[in-house]
Design goal:
heterodimer; A: about 110 residues; mainly beta; seven-stranded mixed sheet; four-stranded antiparallel sheet; 11 strands; B: about 120 residues; 12 strands
């Protein structure tokens, strides 16, 4: 059973561009979570999705950030008009219910 | 809101010795889950151990065990016979059991564990 897949692993964007981060959950997992990790910090919850539904987006910045988990295909975290402060590692996790399993993360660098 | 505190930014232990990492949390809930995750230099988050709050028995996974003190809201991780591969950041995490236990995790700031050969 393949683990949680994330791509790209590294992404470089210039200020003002858009960043799209993808996450494919483990087979059989219907819950997807996105977290952000700033340097020297723990992970901060951003959003929790199930297929075609956003369940909890309480940790998501109100502007420029959006997430989706369509019926077919991976979950997407989209950051519009990136700024330097968006530089971080973004982790996706999936779970059947209680325990979350993490992907390898996407390191976003905004120049 | 729940908070998780790891008061040790860094710990060092000799190879083959035992080390304990501290974690305390604050919650008004009675049912929840606690986790320890390991993040090696590769940055991958790896589940180490999990504890359900309703279980009194401390969880154990090979060389890793926890000391769960519910009244004190304490959840420490003990690593026995430390190995070089244990060197990593260790994060304590909390998750509510409300809503079926599917909420996001709340993480502590982490403890950097150094293994001295």
């Amino acid at each position: 059973n393949a683990g949680v897949m994330q791509n790209p692993r590294h992404l470089v964007r210039r200020r003002g561009q858009e960043a799209r981060l993808r996450c494919s959950p483990m087979k059989g997992h219907s819950h997807v979570y996105w977290y952000r990790q700033l340097p020297e910090e723990g992970l901060k919850f951003m959003v929790y999705l199930q297929k075609e539904n956003i369940i909890d987006e309480s940790g998501m910045p109100k502007e420029r950030f959006s997430a989706e988990f369509p019926k077919e295909g991976p979950s997407i975290l989209r950051i519009q008009q990136v700024v330097r402060g968006d530089s971080a590692a973004y982790f996706c996790a999936s779970s059947p219910l209680e325990t979350q399993y993490f992907g390898p993360g996407t390191r976003l660098l905004v120049l | 809101a729940q908070t998780v505190t790891q008061s040790q930014p860094e710990m060092s232990v000799q190879e083959a010795e035992t080390v304990t990492l501290s974690c305390t949390y604050d919650t008004s809930e009675s049912d929840y889950y606690l986790f320890w995750y390991k993040q090696p230099p590769s940055r991958q988050m790896i589940l180490v151990i999990r504890q359900e709050a309703y279980k009194q028995q401390n969880a154990t996974e090979n060389r890793f065990s926890v000391n769960f003190q519910k009244a004190a809201k304490s959840f420490s991780l003990k690593i026995s016979d430390s190995q070089l591969g244990d060197a990593a950041m260790y994060f304590c995490a909390y998750r509510s059991a409300a809503g079926g236990g599917a909420d996001g995790l709340t993480f502590g700031k982490g403890t950097h564990l150094i293994i001295q050969p």
